[in-house]
């Protein structure tokens, strides 16, 4: 009997950790100068944790997801302005 | 079979968009419009861009939100393609408006155009001279025969 293949699960770019969130921003979509500018503004609670060709891997030190959401939208705003 | 384009989960909606059809500028433009309705996170997977929409209000219909996002994508991609197609016309209208506001600009533009024409003519003349110089030995040989 053939086994049914499960559809491939997409990897969520936002993960919850203890007292922080990990956010992966795709480098093909998010511009480096914009991300760097936003990081410089919020360097006290957001840090780039590792480097890769495809993503900016960021740790946002907050336990409130609303802070992360607001920062995500701020990035969209910066890209449009 | 292709993956479903809209996936609704417990706390967010996932919308897959073909990035060959919609540019990232279009995605950000639409994201900007949705800033007060949803929290937006973008990602990419092969030829698709993935838009994650987290609603700002409880009880938001996520599917409806995705469909509204799709409509806005069409709206903005049409807007951008129209701008691209009409770029020359827009440029001409802007130039006319500028010239009518500051007539001295017309003189400057005309002078620049004349300079360019003179340069072009000089280059052509030089090219012809070079060609003639290159053809001379052949002509001399023919005369000798």
Q: Using only CA atoms, what is the Rg of chain B?
A: 29 Å
Largest sheet of chain A: 4 strands, antiparallel
Structural class of chain B: alpha+beta
Query: Helix- and strand-based class of chain A?
Result: alpha+beta
Low-confidence stretches of chain A: 1-8
Q: From the structure provided, what is the oligomeric state, counting identical versus distinct chains?
A: heterodimer
Helical segment count of chain A = 2
- Report the uncertain regions of chain B: 138-145
End-to-end span of chain B in angstroms? 78 Å
Total number of β-strand segments of chain A? 4
Beta-strand content estimate of chain B = 15-25%
**Distinct helical segment count of chain B:** 4
Care to describe what's here?
The complex is a heterodimer of chains A (81) and B (145). The termini of chain A are far apart. Helices cover 32% and strands 28% of the residues of chain A. Chain A is globular, with a radius of gyration of 15 Å. With 81 residues, chain A is α+β, with helices and mostly antiparallel strands. The longest helix of chain A is centred in the last third of the chain and has 16 residues. Chain A has two helices and four strands. Chain A has a four-stranded antiparallel beta sheet, with no helix packed on it. By secondary structure, chain B is an alpha+beta fold. Helices cover 62% and strands 17% of the residues of chain B. Chain B is built from four helices and four strands. Chain B has a four-stranded antiparallel beta sheet, with helices on one face. In chain B, strand 3 and strand 4 form a beta hairpin. The longest helix of chain B has 41 residues. Chain B is elongated. The C terminus of chain B is likely disordered. Classes of the chains: A alpha+beta (81), B alpha+beta (145). At the A-B interface, strand 2 and helix 2 of A face helix 1, strand 3 and strand 4 of B.
């Amino acid at each position: 009997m053939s086994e049914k293949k499960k559809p491939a699960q997409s990897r969520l770019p936002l993960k919850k950790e203890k007292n922080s969130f990990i956010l992966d921003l795709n480098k093909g979509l998010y511009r480096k100068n914009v991300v760097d500018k936003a990081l410089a503004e919020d360097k006290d609670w957001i840090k780039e944790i590792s480097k890769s060709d495809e993503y900016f891997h960021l740790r946002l030190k907050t336990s409130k997801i609303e802070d992360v959401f607001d920062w995500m939208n701020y990035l969209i705003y910066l890209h449009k302005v | 079979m292709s993956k479903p384009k809209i996936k609704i989960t417990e706390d967010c909606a996932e919308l897959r968009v073909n990035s060959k059809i919609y540019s990232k500028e279009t995605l950000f433009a639409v994201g900007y419009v949705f800033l007060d309705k949803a929290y937006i996170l973008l990602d990419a997977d092969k030829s698709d861009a993935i838009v994650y929409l987290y609603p700002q209000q409880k009880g938001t219909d996520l599917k409806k939100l995705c469909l509204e996002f799709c409509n806005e994508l069409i709206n903005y991609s049409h807007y951008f393609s129209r701008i691209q197609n009409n770029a020359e016309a827009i440029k001409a209208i802007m130039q006319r408006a500028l010239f009518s506001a500051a007539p001295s600009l017309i003189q400057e533009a005309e002078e620049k155009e004349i300079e360019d024409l003179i340069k072009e003519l000089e280059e052509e003349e030089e090219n012809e001279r070079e060609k003639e110089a290159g053809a001379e030995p052949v002509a001399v040989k023919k005369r000798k025969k």
